[in-house]
Design goal:
Blueprint lengths: L3 H16 L10 E5 L8 E4 L6 E4 L12 H14 L7 H5 L2 H13 L4 E5 L2 H8 L8 E6 L4 H9 L4 E5 L4 H11 L5 E7 L11 H11 L7 E6 L13 H6 L5 E5 L9 E5 L1 H10 L1 H4 L6 H14 L2 H24 L2 E2 L6 E5 L3 H13 L2 E2 L1 E3 L10 E5 L6 H17 L6
Helix pairs in contact: 2-12, 4-12, 5-6, 7-8, 13-15
C-alpha cells in the first residue's frame, strides 16, 4: 500500500502546527558534557554546534543527581550484576531485587504502606487513574493539569467530568456540592507542582473540601496527586506538596526521572490500593519495568535526598531560584512568586518569546519557550529550571544576557 495519501494528510497537519507555532521541530541533541570549572556548573555540547558550550536551564534534574558519581556507580554495579535490561514484565520474571528494594524505600519515604514502580510517571498516571474511575464516578480536574492526567481521564469510563479554574477552590467546592448524590464516587485529581508555572496545588484546602462533601458520595471522594515536579524539589525535606501543605493525598504519583535524576515513575498508597493497581493497570502489567540498574540508581538518589546532603541540595536550589527571581525583578522582567526551582519569565508575547529563546541560544543558554497555543494568549513565557548543578555565577551570567537583550531589543510592532 502506498503512503502517498496518508503523507499528504499528515503533512497538512504538520504545516498547521508550524503556522500555529506549535511545531516542536528538530530536537537538540546533546553530544557531550563538560565538567564544572572556574565557579561555573557543567556545560553541554550539542550536535552540529562544534565546541560551543551551553548552560542548560531546561532540565528537570533539580538536584543534579543525574551526574552524581555515587548514583552512576550504583547503576554501573547493578548493570554488571543483573544485566542491561529486565527481560520480562514484572509479573512474569521481570522483578529484580532492586525493584523491590526501591519500592520499600519509596513507601517508607512517603510514610505509606506500599509503593509500586512503573517505567514512567506518565504511564503511572495512565495506568492507575482510570482504574479508579468507573461508569458511576464524577472526576474533577484542575484546568492546568498535566497532559497525562487529561489523557487518563479520556481513557476512563466516567459518568461525569468537571474542570475547575486553575486553583479555584470555590469552584471545586461548588462542583462537589452540586453533584453530591449523583454518583457513587468522586475523584479529585491535580498536579502537585504545575509544570508550566511552578505554582502548587493547595492540597490542604483540597483535602478539607473533599472531606466536607464525602458523605454525599457512597464510595467517598478520593484525592489523587501527581507531584512529579514536587518530590525532590519542594518542601523542607523534598517530600513535595504533601510536606509543604502538611496533608496527604489518598494516592500520590511521582517520578524517578526529575529530581532523582534517573528514569521511571511510581505510586504510593495503602497496601490494598497498590495491590489493586498492580493487578489492574495495563501500563504496568504489559510493559517492561525500568531496568534493575535504573532501580538501583534511583534507590541511591533517594538515599541521598533523604540525608543531610539532600537537605543541602534542597537549600541550594531554593537559594538559586530566589536569586534568579530577584534578578528578574531588578532587570524589569515579570515572574511568578514561589519557592520552586521552576522560575517562569512571563513574556506575554509569542513573537518576543521566540526572539528571546533564540537570543539566549545564541549566547549559549538552553531554555524552553512556551507559546500560544501551548499556553493561552498573553501567558507566553520562558520556563527556567534551577538545578543544584548550577552556581551563582551561572545565574549571574544568565541575568547579564537577559539584561543585554532588554537593552538591545527593538520595540515590537503593535
Amino acid at each position: 500500500m502506498s503512503l502517498n495519501r496518508l503523507e499528504k494528510a499528515i503533512t497538512e497537519k504538520l504545516n498547521d502546527l508550524r503556522t500555529k507555532n506549535a511545531l516542536k521541530g528538530e530536537e537538540k541533541v546533546i553530544a557531550g558534557i563538560r565538567d564544572a570549572k572556574d565557579g561555573y556548573g557543567p556545560r553541554y555540547l550539542l550536535a552540529g554546534q562544534g565546541e560551543k558550550e551551553f548552560l542548560r536551564m531546561n532540565s528537570n534534574s533539580y538536584l543534579g543527581l543525574s551526574l552524581n558519581k555515587d548514583v552512576i556507580k550504583a547503576e554501573e554495579e547493578a548493570s554488571r550484576r543483573f544485566g542491561a535490561g529486565p527481560g520480562a514484565v514484572r509479573f512474569i520474571s521481570g522483578t529484580y531485587e532492586p525493584h523491590q528494594a526501591l519500592e520499600k524505600s519509596l513507601a517508607r519515604f512517603h510514610a505509606r504502606e506500599a509503593a509500586m514502580v512503573f517505567n514512567s510517571a506518565y504511564s503511572t498516571v495512565m495506568g492507575a487513574l482510570p482504574q479508579f474511575i468507573t461508569e458511576n464516578t464524577l472526576v474533577v480536574s484542575d484546568e492546568l493539569n498535566h497532559n497525562c492526567i487529561i489523557n487518563a481521564i479520556r481513557l476512563s469510563r466516567h459518568s461525569q467530568k468537571a474542570i475547575y479554574r486553575h486553583l479555584d477552590m470555590t469552584e471545586l467546592e461548588r462542583i462537589l456540592r452540586e453533584n453530591a448524590g449523583q454518583t457513587k464516587r468522586a475523584i479529585v485529581v491535580t498536579d502537585g507542582i504545575f509544570s508550566m508555572r511552578g505554582d502548587y496545588a493547595p492540597l490542604d484546602r483540597i483535602v478539607e473540601i473533599c472531606k466536607r462533601y464525602e458523605s454525599g458520595y457512597e464510595e467517598g471522594v478520593i484525592t489523587i496527586v501527581d507531584d512529579s515536579h514536587g518530590v525532590g524539589a519542594f518542601g523542607k525535606t523534598g517530600r513535595g506538596v504533601e510536606e509543604y501543605t502538611n496533608v496527604k493525598a489518598d494516592i500520590l504519583v511521582a517520578t524517578l526521572g526529575k529530581a532523582l535524576g534517573v528514569n521511571g515513575g511510581y505510586a504510593v498508597s495503602s497496601y490494598t490500593v497498590i495491590s489493586y493497581i498492580r493487578e489492574m493497570a495495563p501500563f504496568y502489567i504489559y510493559s517492561n519495568p525500568i531496568t534493575p540498574a535504573e532501580a538501583a540508581a534511583a534507590l541511591k538518589s533517594l538515599e541521598i535526598l533523604d540525608s543531610p546532603e539532600g537537605i543541602k541540595l534542597l537549600k541550594k536550589i531554593r537559594n538559586l531560584a530566589a536569586r534568579l527571581r530577584t534578578g528578574f525583578k531588578q532587570i524589569g522582567y515579570e515572574t511568578i512568586a514561589g519557592g520552586h526551582p521552576i522560575v517562569p519569565l512571563m513574556v506575554r508575547d509569542t513573537q518576543k518569546t521566540s526572539q528571546m529563546v533564540r537570543y539566549l541560544f545564541d549566547n549559549g543558554i538552553l531554555v524552553t519557550g512556551l507559546n500560544f497555543p501551548i499556553v493561552p494568549k498573553r501567558d507566553e513565557e520562558i520556563r527556567f529550571q534551577i538545578s543544584a548543578a548550577h552556581t551563582e555565577k551561572d545565574i549571574d551570567y544568565l541575568l547579564d544576557v537577559l539584561k543585554k537583550f532588554k537593552e538591545s531589543a527593538s520595540p515590537l510592532p503593535p
